[in-house]
Amino acid sequence: MKSFILETVSKVVLFVILIFSFYLLLRGHNAPGGGFIAGLMTSATFILLYLALGPGARKQILPLNFRAFIPVGLLISALTGLVPLAGGKPFLTSAFGYADLPVFGEIEWATAMLFDFGVYLVVVGVTMSIISVLGEE
Amino acid sequence: MLLPTVTNLALFTITISMALCLWRLIVGPSFPDRVAASDTISTNIVALLIVLSIKFTTQDYFDAVLVIAILGFLSSVALAKFLIGGSVFDRD
């Protein structure tokens, strides 16, 4: 059963939630946020797409195999943990510094964000696999 | 001394409202009553956290408030679809 109101509202709200999830991902290394909750919010976006348009339309709009996200994310997280070992530092040591970007001014970067990105991919993959199994059964 | 009194009063009122919603959630004779009660409880949690962040003069709760608001909206939509169509996701 399709609802016109739900479709129209979700087309606007979807992008707001997606931008909020990227905001949570980017600030995660020194403020509340991080890869896990950002992955959950991105999955909430895709679930809203599922609810409003149905699984067929979701596969047309996002032709992604979410199960492949899980090993890729685990690989990224494990490799960012292993890189400091090559320099003689302990496992998962994080480096940080400051950089000047043209538009944003001075920002703080941290290699912990790469680890967060791996966690993000794993969470999106797991959540969307669970939802598609539940939805298509 | 006005602001602490007002925030305490607001917290007290929101807590009473949540208790009434919880009673409707447990007793509620029909399923739509329970859906409306759970939606109102999630809205009340948002209001409670905003009032708490005014009371403690901090901005750290705002992201949690946004997350709870989004998840409450999604769960209400899913429950309403289950109520109308009998299934959450449409079959093609």
Order of helices and strands of chain B: HHH
Number of strands of chain B: 0
Residue ranges of chain B: pLDDT <50 for 5 or more in a row?
Answer: none
Strand content of chain B: under 5%
User: Number of DSSP helices of chain A?
Assistant: 5
Structural class of chain A: mainly alpha
What is the helix tally of chain B? 3
Largest sheet of chain B: none
Global shape of chain B: flat
Strand order, sheet with most strands of chain A: 1-2
- Overall radius of gyration of chain A: 18 Å
Number of domains of chain A: 1
What is the strand and helix layout of this fold?
The complex is a heterodimer of chains A (137) and B (92).
Chain A: H1 4-26, H2 35-53, H3 55-61, H4 69-86, E1 96-101, E2 105-110, H5 112-136
Antiparallel strand pairs in A: 1-2
Chain B: H1 2-27, H2 31-55, H3 62-85
Helix pairs in contact in B: 1-2, 2-3
Give a written overview of the molecule:
The complex is a heterodimer of chains A (137) and B (92). With 137 residues, chain A is mainly alpha-helical. Chain A has one domain (4-136). Chain A has helices at 4-26, 35-53, 55-61, 69-86, 112-136, and strands spanning 96-101, 105-110. Chain A has a two-stranded antiparallel sheet with strand order 1-2. Chain B has 92 residues and is mostly helical. Chain B has one domain (2-85). The relative contact order of chain B is 0.12. Chains A and B meet through α1, α2 and α5 of A and α3 of B.
Which key phrases capture this entry?
heterodimer, A: 137 residues, mainly alpha, two-stranded antiparallel ribbon, 5 helices, B: 92 residues, 3 helices
Structure in a nutshell:
The complex is a heterodimer of chains A (137) and B (92). Chain A has 137 residues and is mainly α.
